[in-house]
């Protein structure tokens, strides 16, 4: 088994780590969107991995996953950021329309929609930075390390930063010997940080506090 | 640069950037929270002193009331009883004795008048009117020294009477000065001189902290409060400070 496959396996299986820390009281809070995302991520990664191993094209699944990811993360951020709902929803809706149009009509469902994934990275990195800005401007969370939302946002930020260049060079990666290793490593990091967030949240459900 | 190297450098750089931002936010937030906690501690300390001052004030008032009651009962009361007794006797006396008794009544009334004047004078004395101020300032300095490990030197000389209102305003000014110093000065010593001699009340409040440029003074809520209180007393506030040389606040009030 070469390193690339090992990292791909690790990336797929890493989704199981946060699932291990899910507790009933987490499901009641806004973090349910993240739990669903982790489950969807695991299933889509596993299916895509199996399809790839069997030489079947799997990019259309990546489009569906990408769309689901945007919807679920937006649903989470809309609760965490509490910013102007109209602007927030408008941005997300415009992006989703663009995503569908690009993925299924312009780029095609069997091609990599790099531009939209790149835009997605920008979008969520901006949301994450807004969250961090809110943190130190409001100063209402005394212990950041005990805040589930801080860990979840950090996981999302880490993932999109780590995978940014993979999205930027997506087409090249698919047509050459380059790998998705960085995207996969970012995914592993994301899942580990999600797990920390769930662990913290299960100890004390402080979502309402930040 | 080939694509793999570009991907490696780019992704690693972005991850490092992400971790740096998160780490910065974490450290910055910790610093802010620490500062907030310190400010809260100062607030609690001053509030605690405020309560103690109120109690000292009430206790002082209570003591003074008791003293006045005892004074009225022991001196003026007994004189009036004597006066009443003379007046009763006057009715049954012969005219030649009446003149003698009338003289006694006049003398006793004079004594009553004298006692009333004495009590009135004591009511107006400095002892009554600046009753808790000195004790309150000492309590505040002790509390600050104990809680913040700061040397707080206090020198108070209140030779003349000071009205209750002025006492309270002066105490509030001192509280605000202490609050500002604890929050911003980073000092190890505070010196407070309060004198009230010949109708002139002088307050000098100094610290050996980081100081500030006089031209960069920002009249925040604390300094504004001090200025308003000084203005209310028709006084004058002088601020002297320079970076790394501490600060001095001088309040001069005429109480005539």
Taken as a percent bin, the fraction of beta residues of chain A is: under 5%
The SS-based structural class of chain B is alpha+beta
Q: Name the largest protein-protein interface in this structure.
A: A-B, 28 and 22 residues
Provide the low-confidence segments of chain A as ranges.
Answer: 206-210
Q: Please name the fourth-level CATH homologous superfamily of the domain at 126-254 in chain B.
A: Histidine kinase-like ATPase, C-terminal domain
CATH fold descriptor of the domain at 126-254 in chain B: Heat Shock Protein 90
What is the number of E strands of chain A? 0
Written description of the protein model:
The complex is a heterodimer of chains A (210) and B (256). Chain A has 10 helices and no strands. Chain A has 210 residues and is mainly alpha-helical. The C terminus of chain A is likely disordered. Chain A is globular. The longest helix of chain A is centred in the middle third of the chain and has 25 residues. Chain B has a domain of 129 residues: Histidine kinase-like ATPase, C-terminal domain (Heat Shock Protein 90, 2-Layer Sandwich), CATH 3.30.565.10. Chain B starts with a helix and ends with a strand. The longest helix of chain B has 90 residues. Chain B has 256 residues and is α+β, with helices and mostly antiparallel strands. In chain B, strand 2 and strand 3 form a beta hairpin. Chain B has a 5-stranded mixed sheet. In chain B, helix 1 packs antiparallel against helix 5 and helix 5 runs antiparallel to helix 6. The radius of gyration of chain B is 31 Å and the shape is elongated. The chains are: A mainly alpha (210), B alpha+beta (256). Chains A and B meet through helix 7, helix 8 and helix 10 of A and helix 1 of B.
